[in-house]
């Protein structure tokens, strides 16, 4: 038993330099989700972003070269009803007529340990740009990996909910964004 354990340890340490790191560079948008949640008068509301495009390159062994660019189709926001979706498109909210897209561009990635990472970058919504950071886990699965994470967006930073809707006592300022991205090494 001891000799087979020793052989396993030695064998894996001798092969470690030859293990190939994988660069995940293609987000499967049809198998990925981006959701949001917030509180309106104390009641939790959930929704999702139905369409987005991504340029992505992530290799955990080369974080300095990692990049992520997400372009969000804000017209595709779904807050659970047609009435709510129509309201989100209005000038006081996302003003999708003038600003149909939002964008996140990464500036840095860092390892936190145990397949956990942090990405920092610039988020632009409704013509306003703010720095944000998100913590995520990466779970490799052969030639694919799952990236799951969350971050909090302050809606007032982006003028989301202007006029009478600016009162954070009615609709909370904090909007929690959750993402579940399936990436592969396909391109």
TrEMBL record:
Domain Lipid/polyisoprenoid-binding YceI-like: 24-184
Record's signal peptide: 1-21
UniProt keyword annotations, A-Z: Signal
PANTHER family listed in its UniProt record: PROTEIN YCEI
Protein's recorded name: YceI family protein
Species of provenance: Methylomonas albis
Organism lineage string: Bacteria, Pseudomonadati, Pseudomonadota, Gammaproteobacteria, Methylococcales
């Amino acid at each position: 038993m001891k000799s087979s354990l020793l052989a396993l340890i030695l064998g894996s340490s001798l092969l470690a330099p030859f293990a190939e790191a994988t660069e995940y560079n293609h987000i499967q948008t049809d198998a990925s989700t981006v959701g949001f949640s917030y509180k309106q008068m104390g009641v939790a509301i959930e929704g999702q972003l139905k369409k987005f495009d991504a340029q992505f390159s992530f290799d955990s062994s080369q974080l300095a070269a990692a990049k992520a660019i997400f372009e969000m189709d804000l017209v595709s926001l779904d807050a659970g009803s047609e009435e709510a979706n129509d309201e989100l498109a209005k000038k006081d909210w996302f003003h999708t007529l003038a600003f149909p897209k939002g964008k996140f561009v990464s500036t840095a990635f860092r390892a936190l340990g145990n397949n956990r990472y942090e990405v920092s970058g610039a988020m632009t919504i409704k013509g306003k740009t703010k720095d944000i950071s998100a913590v995520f886990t990466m779970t490799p699965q052969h030639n694919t990996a799952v990236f799951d994470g969350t971050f909090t967006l302050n809606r007032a930073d982006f003028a989301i909910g202007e006029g009478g809707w600016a009162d954070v006592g009615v609709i909370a300022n904090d909007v929690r964004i959750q993402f579940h991205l399936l990436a592969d090494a396909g391109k």
